[in-house]
Amino acid sequence: PDALGANNPTLQCMTAYGPSATLAVEIFTPDGQTDGHSYFMGASDTAVENGVSYIVSLACGLNSPSPLSGIGFPNNRYIMDVGYSVAVAGTCGSAGGVSNLQCNQTVGEQTWNLTWDDAGGATSWIVEVDGNVEAILPSTDLAFTTGPQFEYQDVDVLISSWTGPGGTGTLINSAGCTLQTAPANNWPEGASITASGTFQQEIATPYTTTIGQPLDIAVCDPGTGVVQINNDIFLRYTATNDGDVLVSTCNPNTAINGDDTMLAVYTYDAALLDDPNLAIACNDDVNVGANPTNNPACNVFLAEAIFAATTGTEYLIRLGTFNAAGTGALEYTINDCVPATNISGASECTTGDVTLNWTPNPNAASQEILRDGVSLAVIGATETSYIDLGVADGNYLYEVVTDCGGGPNPIGVAISVLTYAGQTDLIFAVEGLLNAGDPGLVDSGALLETALAGAGRTVGLIRGSWLDYPCASDAGVSNVWILAGTVPNDYRISVAEGDELAILGEAGKGVYFEGGDHFGFIHAASLFDSRDGVDDGTYDTGDGDDTFTAMDGADSGQGLDMSANADVPYTQDQADNDWTDQLTVANADTGLSGAGSLWLSDDALVDAAGAPIPPYITAIAGTANVGGNTVVQSWEIGGYGGDQTALALAYAEFIEGGGSTGPIFKRGDANQDGGFNIADEVFLLAALFSGGTPCECDDSCDQNDDGGVNIADAIYGLAALFSGGPAPSDPGPSVCGEDPTADSLTCDTYNGC
Predict the structure, then answer these.
(1) Which domain holds residue 389?
(2) Could you say which of 148, 180, 212 is where a domain stops?
(3) Which of 20, 421, 476, 732 has the most CB atoms around it within 10 Å of its CB?
(4) CB 703, CB 728: distance < 8 Å
(5) Helix/strand/coil (H, E, C) string of 426-456?
(6) pLDDT of 608-632, one tens digit each?
(7) What is the rounded CA–CA span in Å between residue 427 and residue 481?
């Protein structure tokens, strides 16, 4: 062009790939010189027609493009109508040539089907894959199938149209697309042939997508109401034996986002494939659904199922994730020598004897019993039980190991042994029992045991169900403490376990129950519902969220008063992913004479936008008509950021029927910082004589416990600190407790516990 608009040449179509592609338009020797002066205009946006001008002049030492403005000259402007596209698919440029390119992976294969239209003018096509010429085709061919591509990889396809035969003549235009190749077994038609063993496959989007049909709950219920398996892969398995076959994603190298998988097994039919009516087994979470295994060694959100196989019959196995965002490494096992099923165990609370029960594999050649990895006995292939006599107190992993002739296949069960010796408080820490024994970030069982012991209680800890511990009904037991944990490390109690809690309560036992999902999500109704103080009509409506990070106490009106405690921090068991149920107080639980809120979310909490979060109830105290009282809460006592010993003592005294007569505090802690030092005396003297902040808990300022707050208390405290005087009266400056002395003083607010 002459830069004067006299010529308007049409540039042939060019295709550029990638978001960083830049169009460079070169105007060679616009001043008519012939010594190689060059100007460039560059633009990286299709809307830009007037770009910065650059100059290259070897004679002047400008060996690389330099902006004209940088050497003191204005930018030259060349008016051009330039068609520019960085699209990776579709047609490009002028009319004619290739158009309407479509790129689709072949179902069940790793090849791709390419189709396009002839817009006219072409004699031949060139097909390139990642820059390599795959085919040169006559213009009468409007389709091409690539060779197999590598799964989980991107490659670029380019089809160009030419005026001459065999890809000769002038380029008319080109069109391209990016191939993102899924594994062939992303479709049931491409199901991988597999056998027994443990295998891995990557679940990665956009490659692995959701292909299969939703399950039909009426045919096979995976257990959570979710019927679509996402990011699915398919396998074909032919049984070599009659008997049970285990399909499991519960493997150490499974690393799916959210740790949530699903599976289904179908009778194989080459025509119907994953027709929902062919499903014979399915599972979402290991302990729910039509085919739960209740494997205690498995993360509760992983999937596992057992189906009855027939020799020579082929099955279609489908594995995937609970949601579309679930990606990562999927390790799965197919085992035709299924370990024993229905394993259970319990310890005898007076002797320490441990009894195991199970259903053996009918194909077993032998069975072995292990305790913490040590062999106890090799027993017959058909045995269904074993007793381990006189086991010492402690927590153990028992395993029943099945061998069908090809190697060991264990199944384990955790057993807690405690020989009852008159303990007043029994803790049943069942959190984590459905999740390979993992209690989460906060082991409330151990922390509560320490707190109760520190409060002078005699306490026993059992990591097992109260149903399996008959000594819970012993006359010496005052209180039972049920720690059900926080999802996904929670324990979902059965109807029978809930009924037993009601029976224990009616028999005079105080009952404490905590559970992060018991009240708000798939609640298991039981007799305990009439004694928990929670409105029965609100179960499954208060599933809660992740906002509970601090709390304020309340006076329940039932003899248990936590109102002196405010802004108490809470350590979440599942950091930034707690689901703390929001409770509603019952007006008419038949087993209670009254109930009231005990703890609420901190009124200082705000949401992500900074808006205040209305306080919601997370703990309720109930006074029983008959038997022991109850405290229930939707958070873990081990995460309580105040004085856990004082809290445990207050709870223990209330639920066993003694009741709490007032707020708890530390005497001498006038400024409520949790300590006792000179700062408290300065605070008290300022409050008395110089207009300082008044005591909000008069009992904590009444250091000599004479029923008044005056200078005598400051003198008493200073003597205790510096001249060997007696410490402030009970509960003292170090331990939170109630005021043992009846007087007219109050404790409206105390934040030191």
Answers:
(1) 352-416
(2) 180
(3) 732
(4) yes
(5) EEEECCCCCCCCCCCCCCHHHHHHHHHHHCC
(6) 899 999 999 999 999 998 899 999 9
(7) 5
